[in-house]
Batch of 2 targets.
Target 1
Amino acid sequence: MKLIDPMDFSNDPLLSNIQGNILKGHGRDYTTHIFLQFQKGKEKTASAWIGIYLAEKVTSFKKQLWERERFKRNRVPGGIFTGLFLTAAGYAYLGMPEVDTKLDDKAFLDGMKKRLPITCDPDPKDWEQGFRKEAHAMILLADDNVARMELAAREIVELSEGFATVVAVEYGNVIRNENGDGIEHFGYVDGISQPLFLKDEVDEWMKFHNADPKAPKDHPSSPKFDPTADTDLVLVKDPYTDEPDSFGSYFVFRKLEQNVKGFKEAEEDLELGELGGAYLVGRFEDGSPVVLTDDEGLIGAGNYNNFNYGNTPQAVVASASRCPYFAHIRKTNPRDNKIPDGKRVLPVMARRGIPFGQRDKKTAIAPCKEEFPEKGVGLLFMSYQRSIEDQFEVIQHNMANNPDFPNPIPGAPGTGVDAIIGQLKDQHPAKHEYQFPAHYGKPALTARLPFTQFVTMKGGEYFFTPSIPFLRSL
Ligand code: HEM
């Protein structure tokens, strides 16, 4: 397992050449996402603009780490973060040769619109207008200082006038609960479970969970779940530069609208109290994993991640009476370390999503349910991976959209699609029926209870995150 130690100077070239945010989130509270389509006949200008102007703005991972260190020591916040992403059409526009063979992820080459048979997304004619158009590039700006971010966005848009058209702009903003933990709009702490690539992060994780990776397997301090990840999970050699240690990453962007009022009402109709939502998500709102507890308030719940769903088929079945198979976090990560047949990599991604949309009532104060929004808020889902086909699409298609996954007892009836993001072909919103544990931890199940989908995909695209030496070479 190759963990990155930022204190080891031999890692310097790699850290300087890859863009930030891939191996660790940038951590800023506000984001702007500018989707550009370059104009025909302006290839040279667009290319020079990226090479001379944008490449110098893009935040390397080394700079991000340095800013993290400065914040830890002196509480000095980092400056603006800039990232740049290109679609397959963008690479073709810039005249890069043999895109089909050099960046040979089929999903990336097709683009998101052509992958509906796999993702079961709504028809692009129902997407938001901007996303129906072809994008060549996306620029990500992130900052804690909104005014500075807006100024930077304006500068980029003004300087690209004449050779690029802005097809869409999206804004993200972190929302928090009363503990200060980042949540998504249904109210649940998000961003807890991540693959960890840095040595100091893994050490911190083990310390927080009182776990010792060297302890014998059956010892109480042996970790129940290992977040340690090899950089191979997300990094791909950048095929368009000869500079050593230059890597990029495939990137998924999806705008997912959340009907919060609908979700909260449906949750209440289940008549299972707080447990109802916990069964759907796999965690209580404060982050406590429902497989470990039937109540909120676990100390450190907003970070807690040291658990699994059992290591034998019997244990896997037994744990479903505490965390159903259709629970979002169980569907999307069954924690069994299995690479699906015919795939090359574990279906785990580095998730970097941020909520979008404004709430006029503070999320840190429990609002009354009439005030929950039905539209205009949601999640800008983003993820980095080595393969969109084998990671994001396996998770969305083979796992979340698959009512028979996971199924430890061959031939047993399916338990339903992912309760939060499962999608069925031509059914938007998807309507499901689930059997919940009638009593926490006991095998008896409730009758089948209806639950409708409250997440709607409004548009998105597949990108590659090029290395900085490639961008400079343009
Ligand atoms: C975890 C919400 C979309 C994959 C979580 C968690 C929440 C959540 C509350 C638990 C916090 C954590 O462990 O980090 C949502 C909402 C979504 C959404 C509200 C849409 C609006 C997606 C999508 C995918 C996805 C589209 C992938 C196809 C995951 C994964 C985890 C996770 C892999 C971590 C599971 C684990 O390791 O235990 N999500 N999510 N989510 N979500 Fe989502």
Target 2
Amino acid sequence: MSNDAYELARSAADALKRRLTADSFDVALVMGSGWVPAANALGAAADEIPVTELPGFAEPGVPGHAGTVRVVEVGNRRALIFLGRTHLYEGRGVRPVVHGIRTALAAGVRTIVLTNAAGGTRPEWQKVGDPVLISDHLNLTGHNPISGPTFVDMTEAYSPALRSLVKDIDPSLAEGVYAALPGPSYETPAEIRMLRMMGADLVGMSTVLETIAAREGGADVLGISLVTNIAAGLTGEPLDHQEVLAAGRAAAERMGALLGKALRAL
Ligand code: HPA
């Protein structure tokens, strides 16, 4: 990646601080499909602007992704919340996918919470509406946000300390490996069988590139998937984006409460 990507993030962070009343943030959150109601459950916005007012951000093209950035005070923590993200399948390349993360890093954020909607590949222990902590990932997107010889360690991609803090809050939470594919078609049943054999517990189309960008910038990452459906071929039911969003709405209160407690404990 050329330096321009980092310079654009720096100018977006400067614009963010000018445009918002706050100029420092303890944590940044990215709310995935269906997670916007959970963000609303965190409390009223102290401030909120469309992301398109910041350099380098485009309007998210996916229903369920709002395209704003909001500041919420949770306890004595100030959270910068991206409502919506850019996905690889929107066809704009990798840079816009990680621009929000690089902007948060340039604004001084060192803790990043990534949320997403995921298909569950383990119906033995997963139900629709369950949050699952991401313990590790499989980057099957065929892309990487870092270009050039920057060899970023990914051993603890998803902070063990942050995971144990969240498990102290809710000991019933499961952990799983998240596999990211480029999408936007959902997987075939054969692909889901392959992913299960590869060790994937969750499957989706986001998060992993953002995690890599966050680790490159030295931030700690907490990843949480909401199981919005059981993955293709495991139930006999077809998959539907509206079902994914509805599962998010139904789980909003639980997710909002969990995030609120996690932010207070960070
Ligand atoms: N597959 C890929 N992405 C997803 C899914 C799925 O089953 N559910 C929500 N996002």
